[in-house]
Amino acid sequence: MTIHPTKPFDGQKPGTSGLRKKTAVFMQPNFLENFIQATFDAIGGVQGKTLVLGGDGRYFGAEAAQVILKMAAASGAVRVIVGQGAWLSTPAASNLIRKRGADGGIILSASHNPGGPNEDFGVKYNMANGGPAPESVTEAIFARTKELTEYAKLDAPDVNLTAIGESHLGEMVVEVVDPVSAYADMMEEIFDFKALRGLFHEGFVMRMDSMCAITGPYAVEILENRLGAAKGTVVHEMPLPDFGGMHPDPNPTWAQELMAEMMGDNAPDFGAASDGDGDRNMVLGRGVYVSPSDSLAVIAANAHLVPGYAQGLKGVARSMPTSAAVDRVAAALGLDCYETPTGWKFFGNLMDAGRVSLCGEESFGTGSDHVREKDGLWAVLMWLNIIAARGQGVAEILSEHFARFGRNYYSRHDYEALPVDQANAMLNDLRDRLTALKGTQSQGLIIQSADEFSYTDPVDGSVSAQQGFRILFEGGSRVVLRLSGTGTEGATLRVYLERYVPGPAGLNEDPQEALAPIIRATEEIVGIRARTGRTGPDVIT
Ligand code: G6P
Ligand code: ZN
């Protein structure tokens, strides 16, 4: 039997990056099947199409891949290119879609959320350009999930996904590929591998923490096998269904093992970590943490040193809450600089239209138009290539950067799992007072403007309203507040704090101290602690 009756499930609305739910929710009979059928229907079916399939190795990924293969075969897809073991990092999937001219792809991941039977699972559809489906498509998927009465799935034994090669599932070809090689080859085209080999040959020591997630095999192949970094450079290199109990989110809180090593005695020269599906990154020097906003600015200022960008950048883009450090670089280099809402999908149009080649977000995402997703290992290789070309360490590169462009002190404070009503009431109240804030003073800081960010896409004219509150102080400091679109429990309030110091004095302060007046002013204006009863943020980046 190929056609199976079903009933709609509530709550199959894809969020910022696909549908994410507790694994047990996904494992309910027909839940995954419904979502996949709705996806196929929303894209006009998969008859005659070629798809890419893979994920970050988390619990239920291999089983989900079998279901999707049987459904694609039943709906007439001609070929599915799947990573061996159902593994593909998100940027590698994006690359395969583009390189192989596929019609789209399905990525099995809940990104940086923990994995396992009691944690999270996710499914995301990417388009032929290799990027996440735009809202028009995710809305169509959601609409379809509400009216499904049946789905198609071939009755067939599981496909062997452990061996590379082709087999048939009904009429459809299943092509199992090495998940790493095409991606590693692309990196070899972008970066100066010869210079990087030289760096490691001279004794440069690096630690890459793959957090028991998907970048392990990629990092071992690229850093250790192709670039000659010492064996053991990559730690937690084996993707595990529950990520070994780690929370694979590369930030100072969750990558604390790496943080401790980089801040301790005998720290390596360079440290990096990536997330569950390999699109996020954190980079560190010996004793120095590089904030994602600064990382983007440094990469923009030095990209011309990397062979893939030797001809210069087309333009740059950052999400609104990301610091304006990259704007200063863009101004100095005469590059266009775009400010978009949070979410990588907003960069896709700009890249497809050839307006930008480098993008980044404060949420540990950096990438370029080599694919249509952010790319963790790419960012790590950018830094390595810049270090090799400049012959300087991370600390020196950062301090020269600040001396040239000034420093945008920056930090994000997260208040997690707030009662949804409480968080909404607090922000609605702020919205009501926004216009009245202009010209008032708080903690000696004068409010120059206060508004709610709205974005008009310069390529297709679409408008995204209510994308976060901005309070700008005279002198270039600001605070941005928005609710997370990816949290799974209650509401997460993100408070983004920024203060610009032109230098030469005052470039070496501790960010929390440099931002203290803005933190106090924010409390006075918004009343986060007073209203929530919290004594401080849960996460500081
Ligand atoms: C995902 C997206 C990013 C985005 C981030 C924001 O990781 O891929 O592009 O910046 O979510 O998450 P938030 O929880 O702040 O909405
Ligand atoms: Zn991710």
Automatic annotation (TrEMBL):
Cofactor entry: Mg(2+)
Q: Which InterPro entries does this UniProt record tie to the protein?
A: A-D-PHexomutase_a/b/a-I, A-D-PHexomutase_a/b/a-I/II/III, A-D-PHexomutase_a/b/a-II, A-D-PHexomutase_a/b/a-III, A-D-PHexomutase_C_sf, A-D-PHexomutase_CS, Alpha-D-phosphohexomutase_SF, PGM
Keyword check for Phosphoprotein, yes or no: yes
EC top class, as a word: isomerase
Q: Which reaction does it catalyse?
A: alpha-D-glucose 1-phosphate = alpha-D-glucose 6-phosphate
EC number(s) from the headed UniProt entry: 5.4.2.2
Domain Alpha-D-phosphohexomutase alpha/beta/alpha span(s) in chain numbering: 12-151, 182-284, 293-405
Coiled-coil regions, chain positions? none
Record's keyword terms, sorted:
Isomerase, Magnesium, Metal-binding, Phosphoprotein
One molecular function GO term is: phosphoglucomutase activity
The Swiss-Prot or TrEMBL record describes its family as follows:
Belongs to the phosphohexose mutase family.
The protein depicted here goes by the name phosphoglucomutase (alpha-D-glucose-1,6-bisphosphate-dependent)
- Source organism per entry reads Rhodobacter flavimaris
